[in-house]
Amino acid sequence: MPRLPDADVVVVGAGAGGLAAAWRLTTAGAQVVLLEAGRAYQPERDYPQTSGDFELREFPYDASRDSDGRPRYDFGPAQPLEREWDGYRSWNAGQGRFVAGDERVYQAYSHVQGVGGSTLHFQGEAHRFHQDSLRMHSLFGVGTDWPIPYRELETYYAVAEERMGVAAPVNPLRPGGGPHILPPHPLSFGSGRLAKGFAAIGATLLPNALAILSRSTTARPQCNYCGGCTQGCPNGDKGSADVTFLPPARATGRLDLRTQAQALEVELDPHGRAKAVIYADPSGARHRVRGRFVVLAGGAIETPRLLLACRPTGHPDGLANGSGQVGRHLTETLHWTAVGLLPERVDSYRGVAIDGSAWEYAVPKRGNGWAGGFRLATSSNAMGLRGPVAYAERLVPGFGLAHQRRLREIFGRAVAVHAIGEWLPNDRTYVDLSPSMRDAHGIPRARIRSWLSPAERALVRTMADTVREVMRAAGASEIVEETTSLDIFGATHVLGTCRMGTDPVSSVADRDGFCHEIPNLAFADASLVPSSGCGDSPCLTITALAIRTADQLLERGHADETTNSG
Amino acid sequence: MHPNSPDQAPDGTGRGVTRRELIARLIGLGMLAAGAFFLRRIFFPRRLEGESLRTFEAFLDTLLPETELPSWRATGVMPRLLEELSAERKTRRALAEGVEWLDAEARRRKGARFFLAGEEARIAVVAAAEASPAGSIPAFFYRVTRDQAVRLHYSHPAVWRKIGLPHAPQPDGYWDFEDAPAS
After folding, report:
1. Chain B nearest C-alpha distance from A549 (Å)
2. Whether pLDDT at B46 is above 90
3. Alpha carbon distance A525, A517 (integer Å)
4. Is the same domain home to B54 and B40?
5. In this predicted complex, what is the ipTM?
């Protein structure tokens, strides 16, 4: 007699998408086993931000390495840096040029493993994509179109916003709203001083749309504006998935969360359906958990890695990879950031990490050598300008008395403006398996290959010129740091490696988020997202799509039950 | 065989050592000793002590002098800095070679070790290290020690309070974030 499944659904990965899907499924009555490779963090204990050396403390986990200290990722060939881009390379006043050589450097891929995933160290940005971002191929002949219309996504945006606790202004360029939206966070004093710089380029600096509470709820307190979102929120006011989706999912009694459970393999039954996930516990012991459905939510790097590493009979190139599309179409978001000095002290270390945004340039269009767009934002705390260490190390050159005097003169005057831009898929940017690096379980590491096409480089130039103009017009014309993805890979927004589409030849998942090749295998993470938006942070979109996938799964599960019982 | 053949020892008991062989062996030994010396310097650079330690202290005095702000001695920089620099072979070596370079450069300029060279000369020597070509011993030494010393020093509350940061971000946050800073 066949063994009954351990759960209705096995979800792999407890980040933004996995926890949102698990919440939707459990609250609808499904039994869910949720496997998470990392551990669970306790905010007050693990990231208090109360000690004097708070600036030296990163999030309490080095996302680029395993617990044994070994690198988690391999990287592909480095892209040469052309001389014509010399005026656009990363540098600062304290340390000079970041990249000494003439090749783009893979600095790190920093996605936290743990319950909450990347939302543990995200900045709370909760953006809706522009509706034209879903039709880049139809409108501009680049990228791909989404297989679903914007109105379907809108429904799920609202669900995600309500659950995460989003505070946002009225924004005609990203319409939304509704009674669930909290009042926006005011701009900090320092960011307010930059508004005239935005006005000079025809843009309006609005409070950012943030999953950070602007007033207390029964479960969570209001933000106290410490600016340390990237180090983990000890208050729980930031809407990371561990404090928004996990508690109500647990309260159903139908969630079995297993931490430090590294998924190794998705097993198929003789009919080609997913039947179980094999995972390893911290001792290395292997376990099998059976489910009627399997949902992959490990993110745009780990999800394709798992599929590519599985080679059951009939899948010589990896699971769900008959089309060769798994791992392809990796997109990031481009960035350009400038730090400038205002004439007077504004104590820019106060306030939420990215408190202001301007959206006029974040509407898809065709530019000088590029198609897409970018969003501008004020980001002093996101850039780590939180105390004297950042100033002393990065912004002030030299040593001794002159260094001390200059530091005291400029402390509290540094402000940052950044541009985040669209990255279109290209043939040289993708994820595959490392030929030389394996993890502790013998599974090949993911190898990230990142390459900027001429369009990306042209867009970075436009972003840089625009940011420099904002800074100049705002009176922050003494620039002390510029950083960019042009010469450094340090991606945080990675998307598209198992993208959804209508054509199984050019996509991995269908319009419902289900695998074309394996009917009960679905995706609920960034790998599903077909385009990178116009500088929008992708967390809200990932979450919305994950909830939508869960709803589609519930429908399919119900249909299966009806068929079987009939 | 010729009686004076190099293979024949004078006492006739077997092969002796010729002058040429002796020189070759001495050269070999010398090369071995030199190799060992350099390997030891690379893998096991000596710990700072005595006058080398005084040079390094004088270097920190030059980087982080006591003014209106506390000095590095008050913020406990030295033991943590040495611990961190000693953790990796590359920085351990940079520390040892950098201190030697400081002394050599001070001798060249002032005829005295760095810590005896006087404040003006010390500043000039450190400025020369800072301005050295990227990848050179003084440039790398300056970069790793300066950046790490600065990080450790300015993360001390006694220093950042003097600069104007009122408190750590938590637990109080910064509720006055909309206001102009109090003068």
Report:
1. 38
2. no
3. 18
4. no
5. 0.93
Same domain, B62 and B27: no
Domain annotation covers residue B12: no
Looking at the domain that runs over A7-47+74-565, which CATH code has it been given? 3.50.50.60
Domain ranges for chain A: 7-47+74-565
Q: Are A90 and A484 in contact (CB under 8 A)?
A: yes
Phi, psi of B99 (to 5 degrees): -65, -40
Q: Report pLDDT for B6.
A: 42
Q: How confident is the model at residue B131 (pLDDT cuts 50, 70, 90)?
A: very high
Q: Which residues of chain B have a CB within 8 Å of the CB of A349?
A: 165, 174
Between B63, B146, B169, which is nearest A226 by CB?
B169
Overall pTM surpassing 0.95 (yes/no): no
Whether the predicted pLDDT of A391 surpasses 70: yes
A407–B contact, CB cutoff 8 A: yes
pLDDT at residue A276 is higher than 90: yes
Q: Residues of A numbered 56-95 whose beta carbons fall under 8 angstroms of chain B's beta carbons: which are they?
A: 56, 95
- What distance in Å separates residue B179's CA from the closest CA in chain A? 6
B38 burial via Cβ count (<10 Å: 0-12, 13-18, 19+): exposed
Asked if omega into B171 is within 30° of 0 (cis), the reply is yes
Closest partner residue to B164 (CB to CB) among A189, A403, A412 is A412
How many domains does one find in chain B?
A: 2
Give per-residue pLDDT as tens, A411-432. Answer: 999 999 999 999 999 999 999 9
CB A531 within 8 A of CB A331: yes
Residue type, B113: R
B63 and A399 within 8 Å at the Cβ level: the answer is yes
Q: Which domain holds residue B28?
A: 17-46
Helix %, strand %, coil % of chain B (to 5):
65, 0, 35
Instruction: List chain A residues with CB under 8 Å of B170.
Output: 48-50, 54, 224, 226, 228, 234-235
Is residue A166 within 8 Å of A244, Cβ to Cβ? no
Looking at chain B, which residue has its C-alpha nearest residue A353? Answer: B177
Which chain B residues are closer than 8 Å to A350 by Cβ? 174, 176-177
Q: In 3D, which of A4, A168, A16, A10 has the Cα closest to residue A524?
A: A16
pLDDT at B83 over 60: yes
A521-523 and A105-106 beta bridge pairing: unpaired
